Amino acid sequence: MRLNQTDHFIQAIVRQAGHSLKRNFGVITTGTIKTSRHDIVTEADYAAERILISAIRKKFPYHNIISEESGELIGKSQYTWVIDPLDGTNNFARQIPLFGVIVALVEGNVVKHGCVYDPIHDQLYYARKGQGSYCNHKRIYVSQESELEEMVTIISNVRLRSSLEQFAHWRSLLALYTTYYKSYGSAAQSFMALASGRVDAYIIGGAYPWDVVAGALLLQEAGGKITQLDGRPWDWRESNQHILAANAKIHPKLLRLLTQR
Prior knowledge:
Oligomer: single chain
Radius of gyration: 17 Å
Number of helices: 7
């Protein structure tokens, strides 16, 4: 993919924010509780967020911004930036090197650019609508696994955002076919693994736009599919959605399994 000016800008600011996180990794190990002991924010989140918002505001002063930490910053534009400066804060604070920076750009209702960066392993995942998905400039694709018995699935639900009983039910249905579960504690890491074919499906409960928007484009451009868990279309604007993301072969089978009565 030939990069345009917007591509270069997004990749540059994501790397800057990622380098800030890498410098603070192992240094900042405590945070402030938001909704529970496992839902925290650290000074590293705020430092990375300042880098992203400052750069966006300088270059695109009228664009809207939705950020996990600062909420919605309204501009006067059809363009909206959706950012999570540190996805996987709990991992970061516990010195587990599974986290990332997430940035997406939406035009109207269409997600046009998505970028997820793992600063510890220096892996930058990027997609532009209609142009494919890439990791460090190499084209990536979802897996071709089609059998429920062989699939590897990531499961993640945010406590207080989603029903633990409902997730226990979904887990019990999955257990009829597979026990190959993973949980990375980071939507950034999960979508990177899914889009590059290292896992076959990702089930996430209580998802917010900054969790999903960039990863959804990575997945779709890599040949995958994303919907809500009840089969309704995924809507980038909605909060607290239960999401099924998977390769295109396993998605319909998983959806039938998880929606059975």
